[in-house]
Predict the 3D structure of the following.
Amino acid sequence: MQGIVKYSSIIALSMAMTVGLSACGNPFSKKSSNDDEVVMSQSGPILWESNLQYVRLVERDQPGTNQHPLPINQDEMREVLSSLYVNQRVLLRTQQVPLFSPGELQILSSTLAQGLNRAQPNEDITFVTLGVHAGAIAAERKTNSGRVFVDNNGRLNIIFGLLHEEYRDKEQYTGQEIDRRVNPLLPGNRRSDSQPATKVALDNGVSYYQEDGSERSDWVVIDIPTVLATAAERKGQDTGALTPEMREEIARTKRQTDNLTDDVANIKEVLFEMSEQLEQLKQQLEENKE
């Protein structure tokens, strides 16, 4: 019974964290958190914009052509983006967590699908988004920025400038406000590797771009049909009443619950080691007194 109570507490805490993250307002956004629909521009280069966040059509950063436009719908784009995870170090272990938060998925699935349907061969799509993610102790704000386009092989490319990077309003050591005119949040580019500290976890249909025999750590290449087929296979032949959004949320919650269970075990291990060290220190102090 105690074991059941402990695991029930962990699941309840995980569910609360998930609900809390979904409910957190985006400090960049002017849009009400009660609105579920992403309002997009139907014309012009700006697909969506909210303070420092944006999704835009821009000219390619290097000469050449993309395979644009690409006929892809919002649900397909959401499936592709939902399949992306990053390797994140939490306490004593490395775990995979979703690259994009639910809020980022809502925005990017809509705007990137629309942008790729509208983009010309000489255009890329750039974006900057902020998401609230579960941290080791509390929720954390993470920034993602990137350049999106479809190459001549029909594969989706994302070059990240910022990848799950902690967002700060102020300098960590001085406490001064960060001037984003001087330190802008930039998307990635074809010229150089941004060398993000965090990396995208590779999976079926997801690989790093190869350049001169080496991999670009900031640049992922996505085979859309493979990713969609893999996602469908993993979901199985589910004919229940659950919507895709509900199934996605259940999968996220389960992954967070599993991660939290492991983290609790790691914390217990750390505390046990600390208790042994404290006991040894106590004995040394008593010996010194004698």
Notes: Residues 1-37 have pLDDT under 50 and may be disordered. Strands lie at 46-50, 53-59, 85-90, 93-98, 123-134, 139-150, 156-166, 206-211, 214-222. Residues 128 and 185 are 7 Å apart (CA to CA).
